[in-house]
Inverse folding.
């Protein structure tokens, strides 16, 4: 049986089994700042693109600008399970819940930063959204959460410290 949460279902009782990771302010506080700082510095030094924090806290993290023109959007996440090279997994798992942040009117990328802020994958939204999806166990949700399984060979691995 599959359960999909939609805005229309807010307040509707769902099964006791947790289907998606619940937002954690503690994790957000621990990782959000340095992840964003690392990516902002990289985009500015490498591409001349300025990333501005999105005022809508429920939307994609950053809005990308170059020469005053809005180019697109950047969602940033820090990956606790990845600290050293090489990337230790066969695929990059992007939670299905991030999908809603990747469908925008302009180009959108998701940047997945390693735990120490030295490396990152830059993933185009269409690559993620066209990747196979599978339910995966993780340390936050025992079962039921679906993830896009993104092939690392289809996304760009960058050294965040290289340009700084």
């Amino acid at each position: 049986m599959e359960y999909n949460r939609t805005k229309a279902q807010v307040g509707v009782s769902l099964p006791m089994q947790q289907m998606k990771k619940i937002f954690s302010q503690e994790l957000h506080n621990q990782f959000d700042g340095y992840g964003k700082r690392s990516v902002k510095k990289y985009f500015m030094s490498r591409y001349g693109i300025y990333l501005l924090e999105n005022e809508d806290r429920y939307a994609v993290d950053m809005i990308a600008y170059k020469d005053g023109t809005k180019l697109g959007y950047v969602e940033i996440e820090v990956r606790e399970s990845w600290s050293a090279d090489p990337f230790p997994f066969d695929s990059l798992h992007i939670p299905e819940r991030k999908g809603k942040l990747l469908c925008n009117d302009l180009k959108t990328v998701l940047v997945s930063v390693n735990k120490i802020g030295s490396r990152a994958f830059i993933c185009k939204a269409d690559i993620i959204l066209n990747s196979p999806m599978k339910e995966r166990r993780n340390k936050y949700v025992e079962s039921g959460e679906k993830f896009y399984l993104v092939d690392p060979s289809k996304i760009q691995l960058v050294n965040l410290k290289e340009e700084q």
